[in-house]
Design goal:
alpha+beta
């Protein structure tokens, strides 16, 4: 049996792979303009676009990560799910492009999201936004970094007036109208990128009551937690990853002090329907 890389070595491999995949997808991206026609945009489901860049990044990441970690399982948005992943104690949870709509539209609000999960919890994470050049990383028990700089969540403890990142599509549907007078809200694409921005202290919190999949937020959850924040379901329960069904109904992420007040505020707010 091959020697299993140490967690720091695994993160280094993940980060190099994310940068390599980032270079590949940026060949199609055009800032402020629709993605190049060679990206071959199509729909894989309702409100769920797919591009050639998604597939190229997925293939590259799978080759680099499983090539160096042959004993790991694999869960990715762009790879057909294989239940064999449930038999692995370690698994990569990957979204090759989280925020494909923004990628297509020329908005720099997308990211590659990579997590290494062990026994149901993320132990290493990398979120890379190649359009902004930002790379966020974390190792369980060792904090969160933006590049080489250690980062922390904010220290705010008052919910009213807090800063909050909201989904572009949820905002367009009116899901955020109940909160407009309470918080400073900015719309943003990728949930992975939103979680990274909360982790590095630029925003106090973000949440969604719409269905998400593990690959959307697994890496971001570790970033937030290692930066001093908290991530949970709407009922306050922590997440456990590599589940048989990787879909969840909600994701709440805060700086930490705001988590209990946010849970209380959302108690009577219903889940959004699954529109896919």
């Amino acid at each position: 049996m091959p020697v299993r890389p140490a967690i720091p070595d695994s993160l280094a491999i993940m980060t190099r792979a994310a940068h390599e995949a980032g270079i590949a997808i940026m060949r199609y991206f055009r800032l402020g303009q629709t993605v190049l026609a060679s990206a071959e945009v199509r729909d894989k489901g309702v409100n769920n676009p797919l591009t050639k860049a998604d597939l190229e990044a997925d293939a590259l990441l799978r080759d680099r990560l499983l090539g160096t970690h042959p004993d790991c399982g694999w869960l990715s948005e762009e790879t057909a799910d294989n239940p064999d992943r449930l038999n692995h104690d370690r698994i990569f949870v990957v979204d090759p492009i989280d925020g494909t709509k923004e990628f297509i539209a020329g908005l720099p609000q997308f990211a590659l999201s990579l997590a290494l999960v062990e026994a149901g919890r993320p132990v290493a994470a990398c979120i890379h936004n190649p359009a902004t050049g930002e790379t966020f990383t974390a190792i369980e028990g060792q904090g969160t970094r933006l590049g080489e700089q250690a980062v922390r969540t904010t220290s705010r403890d008052a919910l009213r007036g807090a800063t909050c990142l909201a989904s572009r599509s949820e905002t367009a549907r009116g899901d955020w109208e109940p909160f407009l007078s309470e918080w400073e809200i900015r719309t943003m694409g990728s949930i992975a990128y939103k979680l990274a921005l909360v982790a590095c202290g630029r925003w106090d919190m973000t949440f969604t009551l719409s269905p998400k999949n593990e690959w959307d937020f697994c890496a971001g959850a570790l970033l937030v937690q290692e930066a001093g924040g908290r991530v949970s379901h709407k009922n306050g329960e922590p997440f456990r990853f590599n589940q048989t069904n990787p879909t969840v109904r909600s994701v709440l992420a805060t700086n930490g002090p705001l988590h209990a007040p946010l849970l209380a505020r959302l108690t009577d707010i219903p889940f959004a329907p699954n529109r896919r």
